[in-house]
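# nightly structure sweep
# worker-07 picked up a monomer target from the shared queue
# config: single-sequence mode, recycle default, output format = structure tokens
# input follows
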Amino acid sequence: MADPTRGKLGIVVGGGPAPGINGVISSVTIEAINRNLEVVGIRDGFKHLAAGDYAQVRGLTIPDVAPYYQRGGSLLGTSRTNPAKEPKDMAAVLAGLDHLGIKYLVTIGGDDTAYSGSQVYAHAKGAIKVAHVPKTIDNDLPLPPGIPTFGFETARHYGVQVARNLHEDAKTTTRWYIVIGMGRAAGHLALGIGKASAATITLIAEELKGKDVSLELICDIIIGSMIKRKAQGKGYGVAVLAEGLMELIGEKKLREIMEKNPGKFGTIELDAFGHLRLGEIEFGRMIRTMIATRLKDLGLKFDMVDKDLGYELRCADPIPFDAEYTRNLGYGAVKFLLSPAADANGVVITFVGGSMVPRPFPEMIDPVTKKMRTRLVDTGDETYEVARRYMIRLEQSDFDDADRLARLAAVVKKSPAEFRARFEYVVR
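# output follows
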């Protein structure tokens, strides 16, 4: 039976959905109740609390949550409301948590939700103990090497199934698919899907860091892959692109393109955290349209279909890896909150080698950016090297070998020198 003198444990979900959220909610609730705490689920992240609405809560019991730990979605919904942005919003959140009698808080989300949780802990001055469970299908949070964020493996699993089906369709119908994979800050998901599905080419932002990235460069890299496949007698393929490439192109260049083509490629919008809402830009259509124009100038034509891949993955039922992983994380969050260590720090819950390792917020959150430090794809390691070795795309060796260069140039009816002048820049 819950002990009312200990206060309640609240659960908040922020950011985009990810497979396994219900697994965390379930495991937190069960463990907390087993330790004689009352559990309160707060609807739609911090949205209602920040607005001074303290009624959007529900008590959670073991029968409420037990059937859902292997189900996708979120029993508590989610939102991207950022209460740390305005002092009045944070004050309202703290007042709401106090009104509800919450002494322990589990936040589930990405870097923005982690920062919001850290600020609740800081402003509560010890009155509320906070543990953050990191989630994102992008896998871009700074967990220990080799440890994914929950939801990533499930998203990759189902993304690979889709990509393999698209590859078979491409082969059957002789066309190219341009697939845009979610991943604003890092290309883990796009690369994971592309590599495991044997996509023809996968392009992520990390590969192009430090370069002057334009839409033309991205298109020419893909066109180079198309030409190379054509030289091999194959007029089909699948190109997987990380949506984070849009960040490299930049808001200014994207805006210029979209203003020249009003309404054709979506709209420019910012979210509550000041991020470019990538989902509002039809990047795949933009890429496909420009590729078609540039192919026409080369005397080539390929049937192409663009496909955004991300929303289909976020609320999938978790695969066994994430079902088990989220149970560990939820249990670890409650164990930490009820330990003496919770008096000293608010933390991000991580697991290393089977053991729960709580990492204090200051270790995980950059005080300047107010975000968790981004974990990028390491393009210098063997894992990425393997991915590149099995792609079909232009390489420097294609320009260094006279026979290869001649075969590629013949596809577009150009001399080797003309082909080199047009395309060698994409491999530098």
